[in-house]
Amino acid sequence: MPEQDPIFDIPEGIARLRQIMRRLRDPETGCPWDLEQDFASIAPYTIEEGYEVADAIERRAWDELEGELGDLMFQTVYHTQMAEEAGLFSFDSVVRAISDKMIARHPHVFGEESRDKSAEQQTADWEAIKATERAGKEQKGALDGLTANLPALLRAYKLQKRAARVGFDWPDAEDVLAKIAEEANELTEARDSLGADEIEEEFGDLLFVMVNLGRHLGVEPEAALRRANAKFTRRFKGVEDKLAVRGKRPQDSDLTEMDALWDEVKALEKDRG
To answer: Is 71 part of any domain?
Structure first.
């Protein structure tokens, strides 16, 4: 009988996961695919796993969340293993850094500041601490240090929040609505008389202002669009189901029929409350 791999003898926990990662990256006995990877090639998987965690939470799929969190944790282990191989940093240094950061950003829990403050005040204090940290990194501009590779809607939201902190903001939502009307008119003019680049630019301007309206209304645009995507997916599936009862597929139908079925699906959702 072959000898059992010692990996099965390691106690459960992060130590076992880290050892599995080391084995996968072992130059002599590791997995060929894992050995070929680097930070850039793994980064898309890291982003994908984060979205899958968010998706499970949004769907309240608690039976899936455990596995999705494990997948996301594995991404951290993967990156830190590659960093250790390159002599950049270690898993322990990553844990130490985030621990130190959380302690520093919660002086009302780990220090002598009072816990008697509202969530809004705590948010303001958090941002003030982050601003001090940025100043220590010689990030002088209000927008410095904001990750460039964030999803575009989320980055627009964060850019506008940063600008608003230093007073660059419309006073209320009414001013933003007026700007939306202005940008919509400019997009129409570009469509009628300008080229593709100008149309794209004006479309981007309109999206950017829509994000600002969401911020003024207390709506996080990325979450709102995810919700809209889910609603569209659910309703279009309903249209497909109703077409299937008629022995059809969408490509066998036309817009008039599908639009009528869409209204039926929408009405059913409203009736169900």
So the answer is: yes
